[in-house]
Write a structure and sequence with these properties.
It is a single chain. Helices cover 31% and strands 24% of the residues. With 482 residues, it is an alpha/beta fold. Strands 2-7-8-9-11-13-14-16-18-19-20-21-22-23-24 form a 15-stranded mixed beta sheet, sandwiched between helices. A hairpin with a 5-residue loop joins strand 23 and strand 24. This is F-box domain-containing protein. InterPro entries: LRR_dom_sf.
Length: 482
């Protein structure tokens, strides 16, 4: 039975249906199954074993018959297909050698049968796939509704193939979210070739960009100095990993940026930038290593910034005596902070935090590899140091081993509830707290509490356990990470 997708009224109706409706309609008959299948395939993430991938592709191809596309009067193509609902393929797991040469050529043909695909994620092997399947890039980028694309291990061959496919595809790219990870380090991007071409031709619609191991500075500078910087007007989220770029380039190229994540080297000329001269007017959330955040916050001006997530695990031994929070004086508007560290805390870090963080409402502490001295700081010095900070919610995840402590009650002294109570008693503004203790051989589990407080001459404080679902909603409510 043949159905012409673009001209079929029923098909148009199905394209507007939610997934649950489509799933129910697919069970009505073989015809409805045939009409519905492509619309159900909207989000594809290929990260399974090669054998499972081959079985999936064979199922799609084995149950579907592609006919030659017809050309409409306006020049558009109508894809015609047939589907046999009773034909099945055995997908049982087995030890079968399924190399790229077997299943990679199936991928473009399977993509042809997914006209409504919205999201495509390939966690590995992109370079090998393109080597054995040259038509993959064109089949992927010509999906008319594709809005999210994530590809890893991109090499020269796959990058060039994707760039050529973007040039051949005449329509404006509708891609909104991309994540590209290069196979090698320090790969230069060009606006007219490779992955750079995909970014360039998608720049008007892109809202989220995540790139790893690509050099962006020259790319963002534009095709020529006189043409000005390359602008991505609608990007609100940018993630950079191992990519050298300057603050000023990022500020000029992403004027609407709200969320920035970077694990990268900042371009050397940035270090001479005068304090607070690079504007990020809409930036609300920043994530990165503490050593990279320091020069960044010294250089930028961002009145909207509310959330910072920093990892201080890789500080040098010389830095340990200095509080990792001091630089946050550059962010007086901060309301939400996530702090990650690996062992070796100092009690002096937590002194005078009310001066550094005068408006902080939410704090997340992720502390790993704690020894007994660190646990003592976590239990006593940290809550005492936070006493004058106007916190409403604290989330604590820690790992530490007290089994070698011979003192009686060592285990209960550092229990989750004991820690929760210590923070509730010291911080008078605290309303909620969750604590997760990672122990050897035990699965991770969090416990949530609300804080009760009787104010008066004889102040009394208690913590009451609440349901995890409610606790997670409250944590999301107070955490301003975007």
């Amino acid at each position: 039975m043949t159905n012409v997708l673009n001209d079929d009224v029923l098909d148009h109706i199905l394209s507007l249906c939610i997934t649950s409706t489509l799933a129910s309609f697919a069970l009505a008959s073989s015809r409805s199954h045939a009409l519905t299948l492509p619309h159900l395939l909207r989000y594809v993430s290929l990260s399974k074993s090669p054998f499972q991938l081959e079985s999936f592709f064979k199922y799609i191809l084995g149950n579907t018959r592609i006919q030659s596309p017809s050309v409409n009067e306006d020049g558009s193509r109508s894809l015609a297909y047939t589907f046999t609902s009773l034909k099945l393929v055995d997908t049982a797991l087995a030890e079968v050698d399924a190399p790229f040469t077997l299943w990679a050529p199936l991928l473009p043909r399977a993509l042809e049968l997914m006209p409504n695909i919205r999201s495509f994620v390939m966690g590995d092997c992109v370079e090998e796939i393109v080597v054995h399947s040259p038509g993959f890039a064109f089949a992927l980028l010509t999906r008319p509704f594709l809005t999210r694309l994530e590809l890893s291990c991109i090499g020269d061959i796959s990058s060039n193939s994707l760039g050529k496919a973007m040039h051949l595809e005449k329509r404006v790219s509708m891609i909104e979210r991309v994540k590209f990870a290069a196979q090698d380090e320090d790969v230069e991007l060009m606006t007219d070739e490779g992955i750079g071409s995909v970014l360039f031709h998608s720049r008007e619609n892109l809202t989220h960009i995540n790139v790893e191991s690509y050099e962006l500075d020259a790319f963002l500078g534009g095709r020529a100095p006189e043409s000005g910087p390359l602008i991505f007007p609608n990007v609100v989220s940018l993630s950079l990993s191992w990519s050298e770029v300057s603050f000023r380039r990022v500020a000029k190229s992403f004027p609407a940026l709200r969320t920035l994540t970077f694990r990268t080297r900042w371009y050397p000329d940035t270090m001479s930038t005068p304090f607070h001269t690079i504007p990020f007017p809409h930036l609300m959330s920043v994530t990165g290593f503490q050593k990279h955040l320091v020069p960044f916050f010294q250089s930028i001006s961002s009145p909207s910034l509310r959330h910072v997530s920093m990892d201080a695990s890789w500080r040098t031994s010389e830095d340990q005596s200095i509080s990792p929070f001091l630089f946050l004086r550059e962010v007086p508007s901060l309301e939400s902070l996530s702090f990650t560290h690996w062992s070796g805390m100092r009690s002096t870090w937590w002194e005078e935090l009310d001066v550094v963080l005068p408006h902080l409402k939410y704090l997340s502490l992720i502390l790993r590899g704690l020894v007994k001295a660190d646990l003592e700081i976590l239990l006593s010095d940290v809550p005492a140091g936070l006493a004058s900070v106007p916190l409403a919610y604290i989330s604590i995840l820690f790992s530490g081993d007290t089994r070698s402590d011979p003192s009686p009650g060592a285990h209960s002294r550092f229990s989750k509830k004991a820690i929760a109570y210590s923070y509730a008693k010291n911080i008078r503004t605290l309303k909620y707290i969750d604590v997760c203790k990672i122990s050897h051989g035990k699965p991770r589990s969090s416990t949530w509490w609300s804080v009760g407080r009787k104010v008066g001459a004889d102040e009394f404080v208690w913590v009451e356990e609440i349901e995890p679902i409610k606790g997670m909603k409250l944590r999301d409510q107070y955490n301003l990470e975007i």
